[in-house]
Amino acid sequence: MDDRALMEDLLLVTKGVCDLYMHGTIESSTPNVQTTFTDSLNDSLTMQSEIYKAMEQRGWYKTEPADVTKVKQTYNKFTTSQPWQ
Which residues contact 58 (CB under 8 A, 6 or more apart)? Predict the structure, then answer.
């Protein structure tokens, strides 16, 4: 397994861990458990960010700028239609 594949796997696993910790935080029934999940989530988010930055620096994770028109359309869609009001 080469470095790129290894880092892709690490990023994927880390994202999954973040998802699990987020759900654990949301579903926590006591402050102590919630704090533990929240701390773990923050640590995992930091790790995910570091892996992403390392991959980006090597050209292994490329992103494209968002289309401004699409961003504005999406923004308008969610700011003008609020079904709960």
Answer: 4
d(CA 14, CA 65): 24
Task: Tell which residue, 6, 39, 62, has the closest CA to residue 31.
Answer: 39
Q: How many helices (H) and strands (E) does the chain have?
A: 3, 0
The amino acid that residue 27 corresponds to is: E
**Which phi and psi angles does 54 have, rounded to 5°?**
-65, -40
Instruction: Return d(Cα 28, Cα 49) in angstroms, integer.
Output: 25
Rounded CA-CA distance 22/29 in Å is 14
pLDDT at 82 exceeding the cut of 90? no
pLDDT of residue 81: 62
Q: Is 2 left (phi over 0), alpha (psi -120 to 50) or beta?
A: beta
Q: Average the pLDDT over 30-44 and give the result.
A: 97
